[in-house]
Structure formats: structure tokens, C-alpha cells
Specification:
The complex is a heterodimer of chains A (152) and B (294). With 152 residues, chain A is an alpha+beta fold. Helices cover 39% and strands 21% of the residues of chain A. Residues 12-20 of chain A have low confidence and may be disordered. A five-stranded mixed sheet of chain B has the order 2-1-3-4-5, sandwiched between helices. A five-stranded mixed sheet of chain B has the order 9-10-6-12-11. Chain B has a two-stranded antiparallel ribbon with strand order 7-8. In chain B, strand 7 and strand 8 form a beta hairpin. The chains are: A alpha+beta (152), B alpha/beta (294).
Chain lengths: 152, 294
């Protein structure tokens, strides 16, 4: 019996080990809009390792783009205005998109723009420049019926 | 070992079923018809504006492309304009009449007015594009946006126009979608005008029921019960007229899921008035309902 419980615990831990434990910060800035349907952003990520900080920056950029919009860009409006409700209603979808990193499908570029180092608050962080295919992301959200297609 | 495998299978099953629930129930999306039209000043011929301004045509094409990219087809303005014979267009004279005629002919629910302006400065040239979406029936503005291209030392205004539209199109369509979502949640607006024929013996102060309530009071109660989510606004009531400038009706019929037409709501009012032994004539024009009590 102990063996089974231990096995379950190991599986659960493996699942959570892949996730970033840092919370959403919204430290995302608009860089430029190069072509229609894409956006270039600079996002700050926190983590105990460089990889963790990179993943956190990418996740924050997608969360900001989807749930808040990017001021000063063509995507200033949030795709989904009620974050809490969307995360509750489509929990599995967002787990897949944000935690299991399906968002990488929509990442056209992801390059660190600063050195990974210590921040004032004592959390190691890194700036990352990202280019996102927003048109494809929106299409994906429409196909999965997370957001409505244009129309009534 | 068998039990251990079973546990792993069960664990994975829970993950798989978690994924399946993301594929929500399929719902058909009703698409209102949209037509992109050029902006023309008063006394300007829309045809001339369109034919002489290449950048405006580029802007209109890019706006249409924006709709296409979101899976939304638009009605072709030039095609509809051609349907109006030259004589008709001449007869109609000013831009407003031509616009109204083309909109009526197209059957568009929404028209998107587009304007492109070339700005030349010593620090470079740019193009500014203004787009405004209107409800074709009420003239209500649904979404508007201004987009500008960056300044470049170039005379390639086609490219600058495209950049200006790229700058605004996503936000513009998202604003339009917000209006659509609001309509779905809170209903769409119709205006209602209830009056009396000249030889009618009734008026809004005629008393009904044992409590001697006025006809206008009964109508108010009826709208409270029948307007979508009870939302309506009375612009004014006189002895001979009741004007409602905002009565909400559902976009979809809650039972059948089909489009809920203005004529159906007009029929409901007529039916109610008939229960009060009143003879009624109704007229529906777009989202305007006119009821005349005989």
C-alpha cells in the first residue's frame, strides 16, 4: 500500500515540478508591431534558474496578452476580460496552454535581452524579447471556443 | 504490479478527460452583414471619391481583408454601387442619399465608413486612416478607430496606408466584437412609436381595467414584462403618443435559437393591444416599429 501511495506522490510531484511557482506579474512591455497579426514584447521573468525565468517571462507575456491586452499596441484590448471565470470554466485548456507550454506553438521568437541576475527584491530575473503570432493564437482560442468568433 | 499499472492508467484517464471538456458545445454564430464604404463629404459623389482616391481604395481593401482574416465576409460596395444605375446616382445627387440607397440595396446590417488622409511633412510622410462602424438601421456608432502609419521619407503611400490599417484593425474588430457580445447579453435596440389614427376615439389617457389605469400605464407594465431583461426607455408620453427610444429585444429566439426578428416583437405588441379590444396597424422599418391604434 505504501508503495502505491509513494508512486502516486512521485507522479504528482513530477507534474508540479514542471510548473513555474512564480506568480503572474504583468511586467510586459510593447516593443513594436512589425507585421499585421504579430506583436513584439519584452517580458520580465523570475525563476531559480535561467530556464525557469525564461518560461515565466513567456507565460507572463501570454497571460498579459490574453487577459489584459497590451497598451499602445493594436492588441490593447483583452481577448478575455474575465480571467478568473475563464480559468475556472476552461481550466484544462489553460493548463495545457500555459502550464504545459502549448503557447510555444505561437511563439515566433524568444530571446533573452538581459543577463540572468539578482533583482532588488531578491528574486533572480531576466528580460526576454518575444514575438508572438497573435492571429494564430486568436484563431486557436476561437476554434477551441474559448472566445467567440467575430459576430453575434 | 497489476495494481500499480491500474493506478497509472486511472491517473492518466483523469488527465485525458480534463482535456476533452475544453471542446465546448458547438454553437452557431449568426453573422450580421457588413459593408465597407468610403467616407464622402456632403455634395461629394461617392463614386468619384472612390474612383479618384487610390489610397482610400487601398484602405477599404485592407479593412475588408481584416474582416476576412477573422472569418467574416463583407458585401462589396463597388458591386452594389454598380447596381445603382448612373441615372439613379445622378438623380440622388448628394453623397448621403447615395449612401442610404446603397446601404438599403445591399441589405447590410452594419456599414463601416473608411477615410484615408495623406500627411506630408518635412520630417517624413504618413497616412492616417479613420474607420467607423455604424448600425445601418439606427445609425448608432458601434466602433471607431484612428490608425496612423509611422513617418517615412517615402512617397509609397500604398504601403503607408496598409501600415495605418494594420495599426488599427485588430483593436477596431475587437471593439466591434465587444458590441456584439453586449448585444447578445443585453439584447439589441429597437425604437417604438405608438400613436393614434386621426379618427380614433382612444388616447393614452383612456382608462382600462377596474383600477381605471391609463393605456400608457398598461403599456409600460407590458414593456416591463416583455422587453429583453426588462430593459426599455420611454422617451416621452403625451395624450396622443408614446415614444420608446430604446427597447431591447433578444438577438436569438431563446426557444428555437434562430434570429429574433423585429417583426416578431411588433406582432407581440399588436397581439397584446388586441386583447384590449383595440384595432391596430403596424409598420416595421429596420429596427423601428410604428404602431397606430385605430
Amino acid at each position: 500500500m505504501i508503495k502505491y501511495i509513494l508512486s502516486l506522490l512521485i507522479i504528482c510531484n513530477l507534474q508540479f515540478a514542471c510548473k513555474s511557482t512564480y506568480s503572474f506579474t504583468g511586467e510586459v512591455q510593447h516593443l513594436q508591431q512589425e507585421e499585421a497579426g504579430t506583436i513584439s514584447l519584452r517580458s520580465k521573468g523570475y525563476g531559480n534558474t535561467k530556464q525557469e525565468a525564461l518560461a515565466h517571462a513567456e507565460k507572463s507575456a501570454f497571460e498579459t496578452l490574453i487577459f489584459q491586452g497590451i497598451p499602445g499596441s493594436s492588441f490593447s484590448k483583452a481577448m478575455i476580460s474575465n480571467k478568473a471565470e475563464a480559468l475556472k470554466t476552461h481550466a484544462a485548456f489553460f493548463k495545457n496552454l500555459l502550464e504545459e507550454k502549448t503557447y510555444k506553438t505561437f511563439l515566433m521568437a524568444s530571446e533573452p535581452s538581459s543577463k540572468y541576475g539578482m533583482a532588488v527584491k531578491g528574486q533572480k530575473n531576466m528580460d526576454v524579447n518575444l514575438k508572438i503570432n497573435v492571429r494564430a493564437l486568436r484563431k486557436h482560442l476561437e476554434t477551441k471556443q474559448i472566445i467567440r468568433k467575430l459576430g453575434l | 504490479m497489476k495494481h500499480f499499472l491500474l493506478l497509472i492508467i486511472l491517473f492518466n484517464c483523469s488527465q485525458i478527460f480534463g482535456q476533452i471538456d475544453t471542446i465546448a458545445e458547438q454553437r452557431p454564430t449568426i453573422q450580421p452583414t457588413v459593408m465597407v464604404i468610403p467616407f464622402a463629404k456632403e455634395h461629394q459623389s461617392m463614386r468619384n471619391v472612390l474612383e479618384n482616391d487610390i489610397y482610400l481604395r487601398v484602405a477599404m481593401t485592407k479593412v475588408k481583408e481584416g474582416f476576412d482574416n477573422r472569418g467574416y465576409s463583407t458585401i462589396d460596395f463597388r458591386g452594389r454601387l454598380k447596381q445603382l444605375s448612373n441615372e439613379d446616382a445622378m438623380e440622388l445627387g448628394n453623397a448621403e442619399s447615395v449612401k442610404q440607397k446603397v446601404i438599403e440595396l445591399s441589405g447590410a446590417d452594419i456599414y463601416v465608413e473608411t477615410e484615408a488622409k495623406v500627411i506630408k511633412t518635412s520630417k517624413g510622410n504618413s497616412v492616417t486612416v479613420i474607420v467607423t462602424a455604424y448600425d445601418a438601421f439606427s445609425g448608432q456608432s458601434l466602433a471607431n478607430k484612428v490608425g496612423s502609419s509611422p513617418k517615412f521619407y517615402t512617397e509609397n503611400y500604398d504601403k503607408l496606408t496598409q501600415k495605418a490599417v494594420d495599426d488599427l484593425i485588430d483593436d477596431f474588430l475587437n471593439t466591434l466584437q465587444e458590441k456584439f457580445t453586449d448585444m447578445l447579453e443585453n439584447g439589441r435596440t429597437v425604437t417604438i412609436n405608438i400613436g393614434f389614427s386621426e379618427d380614433s376615439e382612444m388616447d393614452m389617457d383612456s382608462e382600462f381595467t377596474d383600477d381605471e389605469e391609463f393605456l400608457s400605464d398598461l403599456l409600460e407594465y407590458w414593456f416591463e414584462d416583455n422587453a429583453y431583461k426588462g430593459y426599455f426607455h420611454i422617451q416621452g408620453v403625451t395624450a396622443t403618443k408614446m415614444m420608446l427610444d430604446d427597447v431591447r429585444i433578444p438577438v436569438k429566439d431563446p426557444k428555437s435559437g434562430r434570429n429574433y426578428r423585429t417583426t416578431r416583437f411588433a406582432a407581440l405588441i399588436t397581439k397584446y393591444l388586441k386583447t384590449l379590444d383595440l384595432d391596430v396597424v403596424r409598420d416595421v422599418q429596420g429596427n423601428k416599429i410604428f404602431i397606430t391604434i385605430q
